[in-house]
Amino acid sequence: MGYPHAPHRREALVLSKHFGEKDAVTLAGWKKRGGYAALEKALGMPPADIVNVVKDSGLRGRGGAGFPTGLKWSFMKIGDGKPHYLCCNADESEPGTFKDREIMRWTPHALIEGCAIGSYAIGAETCYIYIRGEFTEPIARVEAALKECYDAGILGKNAMGTGKTVNVWVHRGAGAYICGEETALMNSLEGKRGNPRIKPPFPAVSGVFAQPTTINNVETLAAVPAILNNGAAWYKQWMRADNPKSTGTKLYSVCGNIQKPGNYEVPMGFPFKEFLYDLCGGPPPGRKFKAIIPGGISVPIQTVDEAEASLMDYEGFVAEGTMLGSGGVICIDDSQNLVKQIARAARFFAHESCAQCTQCREGTAWTTKILERIVAGEGTPEDLDTLLSIADNMTGKTICVLSDSCATPVVSGLKKFRADFEALIKSKRTILVPAVA
Fold first, then answer.
1. What is the pTM of this model?
2. Which residues are within 8 A (CB) of 300 and not within 5 positions of it... i.e. 6 or more apart?
3. Contact of 367 with 387, CB cutoff 8 Å
4. b vs e for 345-359, b when ≥16 Cβ sit within 10 Å of the residue's Cβ?
5. Measured between alpha carbons, how far is 309 from 312 in angstroms, rounded to an integer?
6. Contact (Cβ atoms closer than 8 angstroms) between residue 99 and residue 252
7. Phi and psi for 407 in degrees, rounded to 5?
8. Strand, coil or helix: what is 128?
9. Given CA atoms 435, 342, 384, 427 in this order, what sign does their dihedral have?
10. pLDDT tens for residues 150-205?
């Protein structure tokens, strides 16, 4: 999807309202759109009041876990005498997900403003925006915007003339998927190998440099200025009447076998069927959807019936056997073989495993070997039970959830599309699986 483009009448634009507006990337352009009014307002408030506004709004982490943002901020104990840190997780690398990089490309000041407000709210004088190193254009945009902020006195030791210190810095990651996991991100930020840490202690107790730390996703922090400007009740206008747990709007990245791929922003609780067919145009002409993955490759695969019955919020997707995840919608039509797609996913996770945990190191590798044997026409019926057995030993038994992420498409694929596996094994046919990245 190119920018600017006409939004669909059913979209609700908060985060993507200014995508494609070239002058919105500059400080002057952002101020013309009301930028930094929320930060000025926040710096005049007690931090606890900011936390309460975010709590009341119902904003939840958009990186995948969906943890309430205000509650996470409240874990930081103001006045404990320790340096606090805020980390913005901009290491977006979940296959099928490409919305955070668009926020950084088009509205870098929205992210910086959200980072500054979040830092002040949790008692942090330093925020690191950890950006995936390959994101050269987003990095350039954010760094240019930060320079404008420091030159204008918005950030620094006397932020906006208030005498308060708010610093925001960019840290470039080396491009490892595992560094999107919060504790691996912290290790990487400290200059160590990006291996996940065992929790507890949780970051709010011992995070970056062993100090209290909060980690939020790009989309989460970018939503904060609008909430401060308009209030919690305004943000809660977007939710299902029967589900107050999921509020606001959500950016979805859509790719695969679909007529109108791109990023879309809709209210929480939006009907997934309408989203797929009306907003995104449905499958290519002459084809039907075969499967949908709604939250990035690490969440359970849905059948078409499950997808069409889903409501697009945290609880709505769980009710239909999957998760909201990162909001990366991957569409698969009836021309595709699910085994091929799952084998490709497994190869990705095997490649990206940090190899710290045995279950992940060995499990992702063996899962990949078996799936590649099947797509090479050399599989056996016994392989399917072996895959499920390996998946069981990979789930919930490692330091982070990368191992689970590899097992999830295998288990959900075998449960819902076992016929694809059995037909391929029986036919001894070979199908080509494209290389990872």
1. 0.95
2. 321, 322, 323, 408, 409, 411, 412
3. yes
4. bbbbbbebbbebbeb
5. 10
6. yes
7. -70, -30
8. strand
9. negative
10. 999 999 999 999 999 999 999 999 889 999 999 999 999 999 999 999 999 999 99
